[in-house]
């Protein structure tokens, strides 16, 4: 039981944690994943012994469980604050009255997986990769699960698995398989190994990925024996599924660490859920928690419109707001890609806040917005007249000098051969450059005493503003003035005017 720190003794302790829910369970039991799996909370009577359920909701919740099962391992149960009916862990695992309200809203198969299934258990939507469902059960049943329809808790028959393997072996374009379910890690290690061995024997299959929520809901399942087996089948990747920072516990961190040490890269696929992680603060806490466990935040999925989960879905605007709140406010490595799985099998569509406000490929010019809302003008290439000016300056300065030289009017270089000016602005540049060259000042630096060490931000060393674009060439210095040789100005960037 976790005591609220720093509060007066009169404040009741929070009803959360193993000591609150399972005070008599031994360490040996608690750390045994099979004990955890066997003792999942699966019906309402068990649940009511652990959580207060309002009387008027009991029948509704029982009704919900006729539609979609519940399974909460004691470890995951212990993360729930029993006194908070809106607890984010509870909302993910416990059927609530709203699920009853929305039981007829949404699709059984919102992603159209069945219609892309050449053999039972395989979804082949993208040319080079397939999804392979090898389990119909999970450690925890998430209320928003896209595959609610397949959770029977029956073992997938051997023959069906062989047919899936055979399909992959026959389909030479498949180089990547996502082994999923249900949760593949609810299989015994021996059964999982037999499947991985068959897959690894397919020569054209390059990558095996496993999708699992076990490190979140049943981290005890990740043990040395499992990791030893998995590392025989590299290259193997694992996608995990953390949704809330409170799921990043020491137990989960230990599980992720074991997998990482077995050489398995871990990527997280979170789902954006109303009342669970639909705020910048929570999502930031999540991605930081993941990074500390060496798990890369990979995707944030918009919650699919699956039957009975409407109460957990939020708006795309909320998703964009969260992504805005991450970009620039935490490390780029910690920022997942927000995606919407297009209905009926359209695949993942990346959805991003708009940072490219305008792009003109002809003018090779873009207007960009940064994370602070500041606006920047960006050129792929400089406008023609400015390019011309810089070429002329560079060319005129290319005098064979081994160091600073003094130019007098007699040494002044001639205006270089000028390409035909294509625009009036370029003509103007040409004319002014010619005039400047005739006066011995071809480098465009009004301050002839400059030592050539202009700051990159375009200000003269002496603090005077640098020329700002075409037509801003400074007046020529007296012909006898000493001018330092080769200016680096033409080779450096300069500050742009902010178009805002
Ligand atoms: S763990 Fe994954 S597959 Fe299982 S119920 Fe949750 S979301 Fe669905």
Describe the overall structure.
The protein is an alpha/beta fold. It has 3 domains: about 20-100, no CATH class; about 115-350, TIM Barrel; about 355-445 and about 475-500, no CATH class. About 30% of the residues lie in helices and about 15% in strands. The strands form 2 sheets. It has a 9-stranded mixed β-sheet. It has a 3-stranded antiparallel β-sheet with strand order 10-11-12, with no helix packed on it. It starts with 17 loop residues before the first helix and ends in a 62-residue tail after the last helix. Bound molecules: iron/sulfur cluster (SF4). Iron/sulfur cluster (SF4) binds near residues 138 and 145.
Shape: globular
The largest sheet, given as strand count, sense and whether it forms a barrel, is: 9 strands, mixed
CATH topology of the largest domain: TIM Barrel
Q: Point out poorly predicted stretches.
A: 1-8, 401-422, 440-500
- Name the CATH class of the largest domain: Alpha Beta
How many angstroms does the end-to-end distance come to? 56 Å
Please outline what is shown here.
By secondary structure, the chain is an alpha/beta fold. It contains 17 helices and twelve strands.
């Amino acid at each position: 039981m976790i005591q609220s720190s720093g509060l007066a003794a009169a404040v009741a302790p929070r009803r959360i944690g193993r000591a609150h829910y399972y005070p008599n369970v031994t360490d040996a039991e608690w750390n045994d994943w099979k004990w955890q799996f066997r003792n999942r909370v699966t019906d309402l009577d068990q649940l009511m012994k652990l959580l207060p359920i309002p009387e008027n909701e009991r029948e509704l919740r029982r009704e919900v469980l006729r539609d979609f099962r519940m399974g909460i391992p004691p470890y995951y149960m212990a993360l729930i604050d029993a006194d908070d009916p809106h607890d984010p862990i509870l909302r993910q695992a416990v059927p609530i009255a709203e699920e009853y309200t929305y039981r007829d809203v949404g699709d059984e198969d919102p992603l159209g997986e069945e219609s892309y299934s050449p053999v039972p258990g395989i979804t082949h939507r993208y040319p080079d990769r397939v999804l392979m469902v090898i389990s119909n059960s999970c450690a925890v049943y998430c209320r928003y699960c896209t595959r609610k329809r397949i959770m029977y808790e029956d073992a997938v028959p051997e023959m069906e698995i062989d047919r899936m393997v055979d399909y992959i072996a026959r389909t030479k374009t498949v180089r990547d398989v996502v082994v999923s379910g249900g949760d593949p890690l609810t299989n015994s290690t021996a059964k999982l190994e037999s499947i991985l061995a068959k897959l690894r024997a397919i020569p054209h299959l390059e990558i095996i990925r496993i999708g699992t929520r076990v490190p979140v809901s049943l981290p005890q399942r990740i043990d040395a024996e499992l990791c030893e087996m998995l590392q025989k089948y590299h290259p193997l990747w694992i996608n995990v599924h953390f949704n809330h920072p409170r799921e990043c516990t020491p137990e989960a961190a230990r599980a992720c660490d074991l997998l990482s040490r077995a050489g398995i890269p871990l990527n997280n696929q979170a789902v954006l859920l109303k009342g669970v992680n639909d705020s910048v603060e929570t999502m930031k806490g999540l991605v930081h928690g993941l990074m500390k466990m060496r798990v890369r935040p990979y995707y944030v999925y918009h919650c699919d419109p699956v039957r009975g989960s409407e109460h957990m879905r939020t708006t795309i605007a909320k998703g964009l707001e969260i992504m805005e709140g991450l970009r620039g406010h935490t490390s780029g490595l910690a920022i997942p890609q927000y995606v919407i799985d297009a209905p009926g099998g359209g695949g993942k569509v990346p959805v991003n806040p708009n940072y490219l406000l305008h792009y003109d490929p002809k003018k090779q010019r873009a207007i960009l917005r940064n994370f602070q809302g500041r606006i920047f003008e960006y050129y792929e290439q400089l406008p023609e007249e400015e390019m011309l000016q810089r070429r002329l300056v560079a060319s005129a300065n290319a005098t064979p000098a081994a160091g600073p030289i003094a130019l007098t009017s007699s040494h002044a270089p001639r205006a270089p051969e000028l390409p035909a000016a294509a625009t009036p602005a370029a003509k103007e540049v040409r004319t002014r450059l010619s005039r400047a060259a005739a006066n011995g000042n071809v480098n465009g630096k009004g301050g002839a005493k400059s030592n050539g060490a202009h700051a990159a931000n375009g200000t003269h060393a002496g603090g005077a503003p640098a020329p700002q674009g075409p037509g801003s060439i400074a007046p020529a210095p007296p012909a006898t003035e000493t001018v330092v040789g080769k200016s680096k100005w033409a080779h450096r960037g300069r500050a742009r005017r902010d178009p805002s």
